[in-house]
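Lab notebook: predicted structure, single chain.

Context: the supervisor wants predicted structures on file for every construct in the current expression panel, including those that have not yet been purified. This is the next one on the list. No modifications to the sequence; it matches the entry in the shared construct table.
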Amino acid sequence: MRFAPGALCVLVACGGAGGGSAVRAPDVAQIGDPRAWTAINTDPVVSREDGRVVVRMAPRGGDGPGSNAGMALVEGERFVAGTIDVDLKGRGADTPSFLGVAFGVTDPRSFEAVYFRPFRFVGADPQLRAHAVQYVAWPDHPWEQLRAQAPGAFEAAIDPAPDPAGWFHVHVVVDAARVAVFVNGATRPCLVARRLRAPDHGGVGLLVDSREGRFANLRVAAADVAPTDGANGAALRGPISTAATWNELVAAPDRTAKDRSLDAGRHPAETLAFLDVRPGMRVADLGAGPGYTTELLARAVGPTGVVYMHNEPTWLPFLADALRERFAHAAMAGPNVIRAERPFEDPLPPEASDLDLVVMNLIYHDVVDTKTNRAVMNGHVFDALRPGGSYVVIDTSAAAGSGVAATGTLHRIDDAVVKAEVVDAGFRYAGEGSFLRNPSDPRDWNASPSAAEAAGKRGTADRFALRFVKPLTPSPAVGERR
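Prediction complete. Output recorded below exactly as produced.
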C-alpha cells in the first residue's frame, strides 16, 4: 500500500483525526450497568488479572460457520473519528480467537471494526502471519470479500509480533478517509487501510467474534473532524459545529425581524448547539406551529439535509397565514423542508425514517391537553429515529411534583413527567441543558405566548431542555409497551 509522503503525518504525528478531542476512559468494571454500557450478543464478566480490571467476553452461541460477533458499546459515546486505545488478550497460538474494537456502530449488523487474530501473530508461514490484524466494515465489506478482492489491503502482519497468549496494547486512529493501527507503542502503524464506510454517527466499544477474548483499559477520544465521502469528498452530517457557527447562522441577515424579536427568550444559538444539528442531518420538528424552530433547523441542516415540519391538522386554519409567510422565506423554499400534517399520535409519515433528531419545542404540555396518547406518540418517535438518534423536548417548567396539573391553566409541565414518559418509551435519558433555566421564576403564572406578552414576561419563564437517546439495542420490552 502506497501513500503520498505527507499522508502518514496526519495519522502518526498529528494524531490522525483533528483537534477538539477529549479522552474518555469508560469504566469497564461497570460493564454490567445498562446506563453505562450496552451489551450485544454477549454476557461480559468482570475480573481482576495481572493488575488490571479485565472484561472477559464471548459471543452467545460460540463458534460456528461465518462470524458471530458480540459487542459491548459505551452508552452515550458518539464516534465519527478519533482514537481508541485498549489492552487485549487472546487465547494463544494454538487456539483461534478474534477480538478488537468496533466503531461507527449503527446497529448490531452495521459497524466497522479493527480486530486481531492472535493465533496468527507468529508462525513459519508468512501468508498466515499476514492475517494478524484486520479492518472490516459490516455488512458490505466482510473479511472474506476483502481478502478475495483486495488481498493485503485490509489486513496485515504485526512486526514485532506480540505474544499470542499475552496482553498487547492497541492504538487505533480513525479519520475521515483512513484507519491506522499501532500495536505496543510502535511509532509506525502495522496497518493503514482506506475507510470503507462514510464516517457517520455511531457507537464505539469492544468486539469479540466466535471465541472468548479479554479486554482492559479502554480509552476513547472522539475527535472534531469534517466527515467526508471517500468518493467525492462531500461533507456528510458534519462538520462538528462551534459556537461561532451557531451565532453566524442566527445572525443571518435574511432572518425576519419577527423571528429576531423572539431570540432573546428562545436562545436560538444555544438551542442549536444543544441539539447538535449539522449539515446533512435528517430531523423533525413536532408541533412546529408557525415554524420559528423549523427555519433554524432548515438553515442548520442545509440543502443536503431534510426537515419534517409537523403540525396537528386541526391547527392549520389558525396557522394558514403564518405558514404562507414562512414558506416564502428562502431558507424554507427548498424541497428538503417537508410538511407533515398529522395527528400527534402518529406524527411522521413512513418515509420519515432513520432520523438523526426529533425536536418538540414548547409543545409537550399542549399535547397533554389534546388528550393524545403520549405513549403511542413517543413510540412513533422512537421508531422514526436511527439507533443513537436524539429526541429533545423543550418546555416551560411547572412546580416540582405538580405533574400535568398546570398544562392547561399555566401552559407549564413538570419535567419529571416528560422524563418518565419518554424513558418509558424506550429512550435513555442523556442529560439537560441549562441555557433556558431561570431560577427566579416562581412558576405560578401563565406562560402562554399571549398571556406572557400581556404581562410583559414573554421569554422569562423557566424552561427545561431534555435530551433522550434511542439506544443502539432497544430493550425487548419496548415493543411490548406499544
